[in-house]
Write a structure and sequence with these properties.
This protein is α/β, with parallel strands linked by helices. It has a single domain, classed as Beta-carbonic Anhydrase, Chain A, CATH 3.40.1050.10. The chain is 39% helix and 25% strand. The protein has a five-stranded mixed β-sheet, sandwiched between helices. Strand 4 and strand 5 form a beta hairpin. The chain is globular and about 40 Å long. It starts with 5 loop residues before the first strand and ends with a strand. The chain binds zinc ion. Zinc ion binds next to loops. The site of zinc ion (ZN) has 8 residues, from loops.
């Protein structure tokens, strides 16, 4: 098992959201590191059962099994080029994606996050 505490985020590839999401997860969960799995608009992929879903699971499993990650976040953000929909739709997709992640049976806490137009990170409730 790796040293330090890990979390995992399935996040957009957008360079504007990497640091805010990493910082928020470290501060909120007291983590040392955040493993980042990136894709354009990953909440849309998961909500719609897109073909990248299996790769997300394989990567998340590595993070949990090798690093002992204890929290798995699905992230959506404002002004997303990969998924240009309204904030309401993003957040609905995050909720759907959370159900998918919970179905993976990885024994981690699953959370949803929204990064707003000011690049502030906010939890998305169930
Ligand atoms: Zn994006």
């Amino acid at each position: 098992m790796a040293h330090g505490t890990f979390g995992t985020a399935i996040n957009c590839m957008d360079g504007r959201v990497q640091e805010p999401v990493t910082r928020w997860l470290k501060e909120t969960y007291g983590l040392d590191y955040v493993d980042m799995i990136t894709e354009p608009g990953p909440e849309k992929v998961l909500a719609e059962g897109g073909p990248q879903t299996a790769a997300f699971l394989a990567k998340a499993r590595i993070s949990v099994q090798a690093h002992g990650s204890r929290v798995l976040a699905i992230v959506a953000h404002d002004d997303c080029a990969g998924n240009p929909v309204s904030p309401d739709v993003h957040q609905a997709q995050v909720r759907q994606a959370m159900e998918v992640l919970r179905g993976w049976g990885l024994h981690v806490q699953v959370i949803g996050l929204w990064v707003d137009a000011q690049w502030q990170v906010q939890p998305v409730g169930d």
